[in-house]
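ENTRY TYPE: protein
WANTED: fold as tokens:
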Amino acid sequence: MIKLSRFVGKVSWLPLFLVVACCTGCAQLEQWTKPTVQGLVVAPSFTPDRLVVDGIDRVVVKNLASDIKVNPDTLSPEVVAVLRDKRNEIKIKPGSRYVVHVTLLSNSVTKRTDDLDPDIYKYVTRTVKVNYVITDSMDADAEVWSGIIETSDETSASYKREKKQKKSDKVLDAVIESMTKSETYPYPEPPVFDTTLRWNFEGFALNLP
């Protein structure tokens, strides 16, 4: 059985006041579960009021991750869309004060196995690390906000060995797998890169002042 580690639920109908309460709860949950910013540095002048009043001029994206090929030009609109979705009070308009610099640092995929005979669990984890820097065009492009955000997601697969299988059979399976390069108990597909990256962008938006 293969499953994703995250799920999305849907409700067909709720009274209006419950919908509002749910939305408020979702916003609070996002704040509680947002990723932390590593090495966060914030200038005293970069306040919530300043960001809202002066706004963001543009988003510039670079890709330094050698293990994933993405077009930075296609990612800039995605960052803007996330900012507008999660922080719609912040205006994003040419000529505004701040510039957001986004650098994709790494995209790693790792695998692990838990062998709890007769159950076998296989996991694939994708981790995306992004560096964010905001500069102030009205202060000689000084850095006013910077930090690194790391987001991860995981897929898993579970299998059950036949009870009659002996230790010698397990060894034989391993030998066959190594010779044929096929897996009796394959790993699931890795989490989708675009989804893990979007959660990173959302973490950035939610961590702004």
Remarks:
- The radius of gyration is 22 Å.
- Residues 36-207 form one domain.
- Confidence is low (pLDDT under 50) at residues 6-20.
